[in-house]
UniProtKB/TrEMBL annotation:
Domain AB hydrolase-1, first and last residues per copy: 88-215
The name this protein goes by in its record: Alpha/beta hydrolase
Pfam families xrefs: Abhydrolase_1, Abhydrolase_4
InterPro entries reported in the protein's UniProt record: AB_hydrolase, AB_hydrolase_1, AB_hydrolase_fold, Pept_S33_TAP-like_C
Organism: Flavobacterium agricola
UniProt keyword list: Hydrolase
Keyword rRNA-binding annotated: no
GO molecular function, one term: hydrolase activity
Amino acid sequence: MTSAEKNKQPSLQIPKAIVTTAKLLEKVAPSLLLKFAYKLFITPINYPTPEREKDMIKNSVIETCYIPAFKKKVAVYKYKNPDALKKVLLVHGWSGRGTQLFSIAKEMAKLGYQVISFDGPAHGKSEGKKSTMKEFIQTIQEVDKQYGPFEFVIGHSLGAMAVANALNEGLVVKKAVLISGGDIVTDVIADFVDHLKVDTSYNKKLQDKFEKEYQLKMNDYSVSAVAKNITIPCLIIHDTTDTDVKVEAAYNIHKHLPGSELVITEGLGHRKILGDKTVIQKIISFLN
């Protein structure tokens, strides 16, 4: 198998035992399947921190930040250059960690920036077991209040979606980078149901349950929907072999985001893109 073929494999596959349980519930207890799927959708998987990220942990001051909007604490990483006036905020994706963008953090630190990142709600060292994109947005807003202002913000995957929504809701930065970000929120649900290998009718059922629970319309948070209100320069980066978030999302966001720049890569998948030297150089060139 080539490296490109490997990157076409979903990087966060749902464990087989969970898929088996879902398919069984679909046959014998459909109402329980809906509850099961809903819980899974808002429950991140906390993977062990890989060795490559531990240098960022070692060289960070780790603090806790209380988020009044949902009354929980999140872990915040202050990486190098503690006296720097220039700051950049990094936002990881679902089931990620505040150190996941460590390669980008290192290069930004070399340029004299203090890099701030956080473990999203219910992720890494942060409190909670369940989370939503709305909580990611609220975390960005509170971290900006307590640790900002920031020159730039860089988000990956769900973090990119949260960044776009935070910009729409008033986050002030000079430029933003959106890496491997999703677009239409209901498409994210459809992909989740597809990976769960149950009937597509659960797309709408899960959407309805979520919207009733949180009293919101999910697609109001789609990036292409909020893009028209974003006026700062934005760089969109996505890979053609990304199967976690299809590349079509990037094209649609670019279409609706005025003045944005689009970079399409090949063979890097959903996560390898974060450490690619050419991609990082492109980010630095764009920001500077």
